[in-house]
Structure formats: C-alpha cells, structure tokens
Write a structure and sequence with these properties.
Blueprint (H helix, E strand, L loop, with lengths): L6 E8 L3 H11 L11 E4 L8 E8 L1 H12 L11 E6 L5 E4 L10 H8 L2 E2 L9
Antiparallel strand pairs: 1-3, 1-4, 2-3, 2-6, 4-5
C-alpha cells in the first residue's frame, strides 16, 4: 500500500526551541528526510543573529494527528512558545489550517515567512561554506 502524503506543513519556532522541535519531529516521524530538519535559519532582517528556524515536510494523516497533539500541548512538549504552523493540502497547495493565517488560497514557504515577518538568513558566500 502506497503512503499517502496528504498534508504539506510549514513550521517556525524560536531558535531556543530548535533542538526540542527536532527531537519532537524525530519522535513523530523518525525518517530524518521527512521532518524538515529545522535548519533554515531566520530573522526579521535576514541577517544574523538567528531568531527562528523553519521546518517543512509532507505528512500522512497519522503524522498530522501526532503533530496536532504537540500543538495543543506545546508547553508539555518542552517548547518555550507554541510553534507557528501552516498546513496545506499537499495536492492542491491550498492553506487548510494555521494558528497564524486565515485558511484558504494557495500557500507556500514564502507565504509562511511573510506571515511570520521573517526572512531567510543566506550564508555568506565568501565564508567557509
């Protein structure tokens, strides 16, 4: 039976919660390629210091249910604040639910950044990357 990736989820958390959310995500879905990594570094200006991290990945219905439980009990999960999230229909790309933005309409990674007032911190191309 083929896996049904029903949802595409975008999540942003404060940098202080990065390790905790990575651990939570790995507990929900142990495939390291599916949890979005929470390695996209963000700030309001797009410059250092990093204030937030982003993770985004496709989800099955079972994984969505587990992720929703974390959103309900985010304090019990060890997070300092409720993660900002946007859940889209994976096929249509339409925003279905969010604790930040009104549902409906096409949605993407860039829309999540705009809604959160954050920008990606680009690596210094002259640095040792």
């Amino acid at each position: 039976m083929a896996t049904k990736w029903i949802w595409k989820t975008h999540v942003i958390v404060p940098i202080a919660d990065a390790e905790t959310i990575r651990s939570i995500a790995a507990g929900i879905d142990p495939d390291p390629n599916s949890t979005g990594g929470f390695t996209v570094r963000l700030s309001a200006s797009g410059e250092e210091p990093v204030t937030h991290v982003y993770g985004g990945w496709p989800m099955t219905e079972a994984v969505r249910q587990q992720a929703d439980a974390v959103m309900v009990d985010w304090q019990g999960s060890g997070l300092s604040e409720c993660p900002r999230f946007w859940r889209c229909d994976a096929l249509a790309g339409v925003l279905v639910s969010s604790n930040v933005s009104e549902a409906g309409g096409a949605w993407s990674f860039d829309d999540s950044l705009t809604a959160a007032g954050l920008q990606v911190i680009r690596p210094d191309t002259e640095g040792p990357y």
